[in-house]
Amino acid sequence: MSKKLDKRAEVIDLLTVHFLDTGLSDTGLRRLAEVAGTSDRMLLYYFESKDELLAAVLTHIAGGLSASLTQLFGTTLLSPDTVLEKLWVAAKSDGFKPYLRLWLDLAAHANRGGPLFLSIAQQISTGWIDWMASLLDVPEANKEATAALILAAVDGQLVLFPGETKRGEHAILQLIALLRMQSKVQA
Amino acid sequence: MSKKLDKRAEVIDLLTVHFLDTGLSDTGLRRLAEVAGTSDRMLLYYFESKDELLAAVLTHIAGGLSASLTQLFGTTLLSPDTVLEKLWVAAKSDGFKPYLRLWLDLAAHANRGGPLFLSIAQQISTGWIDWMASLLDVPEANKEATAALILAAVDGQLVLFPGETKRGEHAILQLIALLRMQSKVQA
DNA sequence: TCCAGACTGTAGCAACCATTACATTTCTCA
DNA sequence: TGAGAAATGTAATGGTTGCTACAGTCTGGA
Q: Tell me: the pLDDT tens digits for A3-29?
């Protein structure tokens, strides 16, 4: 029984890389087996079904993301404009771009497909919002709204400018300016 | 030759409705044929290939959207906060929600799939940004950035809160407040 | 050593996919 | 009315999909 679980974990790790690279298309069992160095037969031995496999890998990815985010940002409170600034730098980096693209994939699936993707996407989203809200140095009543605004602005770039990172720059800079202005007024 | 073109246009109309309803999944030729009241054989008679069919329907949808947007907003200049306010009301309405969800689908496909979806998505995006930029009563240098910011904020809600419309409300209201504050400062 | 259970390979299922070859019907125009 | 073209149906192609039945190998404990 233990070897099964070990292999399962190993497969999850390998597929994590693959999913971040290529997203939620290209998810045929035979293809995934090839990537993971096994057979489709074995994948369905380690996992109950393809859906369970997907859910396992995606939640594993979500965990890894929040870990590296807290590592990157620390736990001290920051003003909204600095948070957005740091987040935008990260979003453009090769390390984080795959996560954002995968998240976009997931959101698209969540809007249509079965409850599987929806619940995973919601879980990731609220985790992300909560994390950022706890980081923002703003009045309690505004935390969640500001966090959602910042995240939405960054995600929106993905929708608005597919395949590019350059064109969204000005919009983000504008929002940074707005947030900074607000901080000054309130101070 | 004329009947072929007539049928082609009719099929595009019928599939427009279907795509807005169900997005970019469920696009098997046999299923689309059923929706359009024909056979798969005939679809490939009216269109060169499935890709050409998709491209035709999607660009038709894009045209319809920009038409109803200009009808809704008119051509007089508006302040950024009122534009966002009106856009958000529209985004929540049953009439426009399907467009936004389809756009999200398209953006997700554009990030991975072939050049087909990418070019269509880019075309729609720039069309939308240009339209909004021409509507904004702000200095010329800021038009595009503000337009992109507003659109990104609205689109971002889709990514951030899949399946919901309620939770994004506060973030949008916050951005409206920020934009209004900026207008006053500049005046 | 032997046996039960964990593990794994082979081969196949039925359903779907986009596309095409071929035959047939229907229409148009001379 | 008859010929040629346009329009449509039938049926098949070779491919993929998630999943499974069956048989075999391997391994740890008695």
A: 888 999 999 999 999 999 999 989 999
Residue B78 is part of which domain span?
55-186
Q: Does a structural domain hold residue A13?
A: no
Question: What CA–CA distance (Å, rounded) separates A44 from B52?
Answer: 37
pLDDT one-digit tens code per residue, B120-150: 999 889 989 999 999 999 999 999 999 999 9
B25-63 per-position pLDDT tens digit: 899 999 999 999 999 999 999 999 999 999 999 999 999
Q: Flag whether residue A5 sits within 8 Å of chain B, measured between CB atoms.
A: no
Confirm or reject contact between A148 and chain B (CB < 8 A). yes
Asked if residue A5 belongs to a domain, the reply is no
**Does residue B16 fall inside a structural domain?**
no
> Does residue A12 lie in a domain region?
no
Nearest nucleotide to A29 (CA to C1') is: D18
Per-residue pLDDT of A111-161, as tens digits, reads 887 788 999 999 889 989 999 999 999 999 999 999 999 999 999 999 999
Domains identified in chain A, total number: 1
**Minimal C-alpha gap between B114 and chain A (Å):** 12
| CA gap A20, B10 in Å, rounded | 40
